[in-house]
Every structure is written in structure tokens, then in C-alpha cells.
Predict the structure.
Amino acid sequence: MVRVLLALDDDLAQAKAQVAAIEDMVETADGAEVFILHVFEKNPEGASVHQVEAVREAKKRLEAAGVTVELLEASGDPGEEILERAKEQDVDQICVSGRKRSPAGKALFGSVTQDVILGTNRPVLVCGSSEE
């Protein structure tokens, strides 16, 4: 069984691209468990992971593909929280989103993505938007 931490923000197109990549991966796996994590940097209203459209859509699609899904939420620095949850859940892989960048910016990943890649020994899958 493959265990994946799927880190999602509010971007629905990004979430769809990440889910598509995971669906492709789990087709060949003998079972899959995906932990969907949304990190609230600031959450004064007390929102829940269940209120994030990208999370709801990802959960629905993954469960339809036969994947076991658990929702996680955290508050704070996204890079640190992603790394902490990956460790806690002992996942095999972390899936994060990439952002479309200017030609000069393409040489570097976004700060959260870069923090995750450099902060773990686990494989990190970086996905672009499905609308690119």
C-alpha cells in the first residue's frame, strides 16, 4: 500500500492536477491511502478543512478511484506543517503544487515547494496546474 500526503491550497485547478497525478500513481499500487492536508496560514474565522472546495473535490475524486482518504488541517507555516504531517503519518511520498512562473522565476520553485523538497528525504511529486 502506498501512503501519500497531498498538500492542497485553495486553488481548484492545482488540486485537480495533483489528484490526476495521484490517480495515475495508485492505478499500479496495491492499495493507497492519501492524507489530504490544508494549512491555514491565518484562520481568524476558524474555518475547517471541510470548507475548502479544493479539498472536497480532491476527496470526492480520490474516493471514487478507490483510495482511502483522511483529511488533515493545520495552522502556521505551510512548509513546516507539510513536513511535520509527512513525518507523523509516515508517508511514502509528498505531493505539492507548483506555480506558473516568469521565465526568470522558473529556475526556482516557490518557497513552500522548495522548503518541502529541501526539508525531507521522502520523494516529492510537484504538479503544475491542469489549466496550464
About this structure: The mean pLDDT is 88. DSSP finds four helices and five strands in the chain. The longest strand covers residues 32-40.
